[in-house]
Amino acid sequence: MTANINIILGSLFTIIEFCSFGFFFYFNLKNNLLKKLIFFTIIAFVIFCLTNLFLQFSAYEALDTIPVTFQALFIMTLCVIYFFEQIRNPKALFIYSTSEFWIVTGILVYLAGTFFIFIYSANLTQAQLDTYWSINYVFNTIKNILFGLGIYIHGRNQRKAVEKNPFDYYSVLENP
Amino acid sequence: MYFLQANINNSATTVLLFGTVGMLVLTIGLIVFIVFHQRKVIRYQLQLQRMEQDQQKVLLNASIRLQEEERQRIAADLHDDAGPLLATARLYLNENLVNLDKTTQLQSIYNAKQIIDDTIQLIRNISHSLMPPTLKNFGLESAVNDLFQKISSSGSMNASCRFHDYRDRMHPEQELIIFRVIQELVNNILKHSNASFIHLTQNLSGEKLYIRMHHDGRGLTQNDFEKLNKSASGLGLKNIQSRLKLLHGRIFFEKDLSQTYFKVTIEVPKEDGVHVK
After folding, report:
1. Binary contact (A86, B35; C-beta < 8 A)
2. Which of A78, A91, A116 to substitute to test the interface with B, most B CBs within 10 Å?
3. Cβ-Cβ contacts under 8 Å, B16 against chain A
């Protein structure tokens, strides 16, 4: 029963993670064709994951390796595309002064670091998995630190923008 | 069976560890590359921007200097020619108040009239040099024809022009800019080239208007033009470039394939609708 709940929760986690990362790139990439591709891939991915979960429920052992591998490859490709888009049309003087850079770096480091452990999780014994699962924790922590840095930089940039263009209270009072 | 399982597990562990390290190295390498490359791109773009700003500054300076020279010329014309003429006319008219002899009075009025006519002609000439009436009333083709006829009739050079496709007039401001560029080029040819003829042709190709000038004197190539454009001298050429920039036009200097003639080509987009104020 607990194993079943874990499988369902694992699948839901993959779906939510893929959707979050996918929509992050959907809103931050400039290429319209790519945006459409991301949107339809998200829909297809959700359908595939749910179908996979219901049809092959008994075949699951611990982790849904195929969706996770696809997710990692797809999102890593989007990270690289994002970086190259930033080289071609830079948004800021220094790329690391934008919050998106740190978020994308966090996503990329996490997915690259955990790529092999997710692929090979089916081929490892429980003891090995217990030993090496710490890789996932390490990269998850790095990802969270980088996300935190991104959020901090976003807040700092917004504060700077407000200082540059102070909020016009009078216009709000006149046009509530 | 146990060994086989153990081998598989060992190789999986090795692949897992090496794969993870490899992916991490690749990712860090990619991020470092992106950061440094983006800085390089930004630095290059800033340098380009700075160069463009410098060029703009040079062009602006050239156009200001030219404007000042033009003002000084007009001021000199008015002060040296119109001023004395009007002062003389005033003297003649003043004489009428003192001298009551009818014949002398008539003579001085006649003289004053002559001088006023000369002054009117002088002011007309100044005004025409500022804005040729032919250009305003009849367009670029007639104005260029007029200019070339004047050069030809002076006898110093054989000048001819032919407009192949100029049925619809351009915007008057665009015509004036093109006319000024042609004037400047002709002026340069007259001053520096020692040519025996100038021939101008106009063509339309697609949405672009082409004006080509040939002459057989000493001329410029594109390299010379670019060098002069960057140097402190070559005020006229800088002025040509800043004028053409307003029309999003371009200019090319080249030597003819036969190596006998020099060719200048002006390219201007026809339907650009640039309104120069």
Report:
1. no
2. A116
3. 116-117, 120, 124, 132
Best CA proximity match to B42, nearest among A158, A97, A150: A97
- What percent of chain B clears pLDDT 90, i.e. is strictly above it? 17
The DSSP result for B205-265, as a single string, is ETTEEEEEEEESSS---HHHHHHHHHSS--HHHHHHHHHHHHTT-EEEEEE-TTSS-EEEE
Alpha carbon distance B56, B63 (integer Å)? 10
DSSP B271: G
What ipTM, to 2 d.p.?
A: 0.79
Chain B residues touching A112 at Cβ < 8 A? 23-24, 26-27
Listed in sequence order, the residues at least 6 apart from A64 whose beta carbon sits closer than 8 Å to its beta carbon are: A7, A10, A11, A14, A49, A52, A53
Could you tell me which of B188, B185, B165, B167 has the C-alpha nearest to residue B177?
B185
H-helix or E-strand spanning residue B163: strand B158-163
C-beta atoms of B27 and A109 within 8 A: yes
pLDDT digits (tens, 9 = 90+) for B184-243: 899 888 888 888 899 999 998 888 899 999 998 888 888 888 888 777 777 788 888 888
> Å from A158 to nearest chain B CA?
22
Q: Do B9 and A86 touch (CB under 8 A)?
A: no
Tokens of A76: 């890593």
Neighboring chain A residues of B45 at a CB cutoff of 8 Å: 90
Considering only the beta carbons, identify the residue of B12, B31, B42 that sits closest to A120.
B12
